[in-house]
Amino acid sequence: MKKIFYLIPLFIFGCKSATTTDKAVTSIEKVKAPYAFNYKVEESSVSATLKTLTSDAFEGREVGTPGIEKSAVFLEDFLKKNNVKPYFDSYRDVISNFKLPTANIVGYIEGNDPVLKNEFVIFGAHYDHIGISKDGGVNGDKINNGANDDASGVTAVAEIAKYFGNNKTNKRSILIVFFTAEELGLLGSEHLAEKLKKKNVDLYSMLNFEMIGVPMKADYTAYITGFSKSNMATKINDYSGKKLVGYLPMEFQYQLFMRSDNYPFFKEFNVPCQTVCTFDFENYAYYHHVDDEFELMDTKHMTSFIQDILPVAEQMVNAKTKEIVLK
Length: 327
What we know:
The protein is an alpha/beta fold. It contains 9 helices and 11 strands. The chain has one domain (5-318): Zn peptidases (Aminopeptidase). The protein has helices at 8-14, 43-53, 66-81, 147-167, 187-198, 232-240, 249-253, 262-269, 299-318, and strands at 85-86, 92-94, 103-109, 119-126, 131-132, 143-144, 173-179, 202-209, 222-224, 245-246, 273-277.
C-alpha cells in the first residue's frame, strides 16, 4: 500500500475524524445463507506462491530491476499453467508513464454468457515492492521481500485466477491484473485504467487485494476501503453468508481508498472499485521493512480468507444484473 505512514502528521493536524462520516453507512445488513461452493483452496498452493514471490532471488521486486522481471516471468507462467489467456498480444501491458521498462501482467478469462461476457470484473493486486535498502539494512539483511505488501494480495489473486482459469464458471469476463509501480504512485494501475477506458471496456467492478497476510482482531475478516461509496461491503457479506468484511475507522482517517490500485479505475470508470485488506495498523509492525518476510505470514488465515472470497467472486461475475452499485 502506497506510503501510508507518511500521512500520519497530515491526519493528526488536517483530517476530519472518522466520526464525521454517516454512522449509518458503517452497518452491515443481515446476510443470507452461505452459497453452495465445493472448491477447496489448498494451503500448500497459497504457501508455494507466496514463498516464491518473497524469495531473495526476486530482490524485493523493485521496478526496473532483474528481481521484478523474475517476478513477472513467474506470474506469466502461473497464468499460462492455469489456462488464463493474455488480454493483450502478450500478458505484458508495458506502462508508458515510467522511465524504465516495466509492465502490468494482465490475464483474461472470457465469460461464458453471450451477453454478460461483454461486461468485465477486475481482480488485482500489485506485485512490485521497494527492493534493496540503500542503508545497512537490519542484521545484515537489505532485501525488502514485501511478503505482506503485497505478495499476500498477489497470492490471493493468483488463487482466483487458478479457480476461474481451470473451471470457467464465469458469465462475465474477468481480467486478472498484477500491477507494477504501485509503490511509485499507482503508475501501473493509472496506465491500465486509462488504456481500458479508451477501449470502451464495460467495467462492472474492480476488487483489489492489499496486505492480507495477517489476521485482524475484529468480528470480521477484512475491511474494505471506501466503505460508504458503494454497497460492495453489503454484497460481499451477502454473497459469503457471513460478515466477511467490515468498516475500519483508520481506513477513513488515512484515506486508503485513494492509496491503492482500485482508485485509478474508480476515477476513470466511476463504478465500484475497492480494496480489501487485513492490515489494521496494529497487527503488523513491518510495513516497508526488511522483516516483512514469508515466515511472518499466516498462511492458514490467508487460505481461509481466499476460500471465503472465491464464492463471492463467483457470484459477482455471475449476477444477472449489476448488483454492486455506487451510493
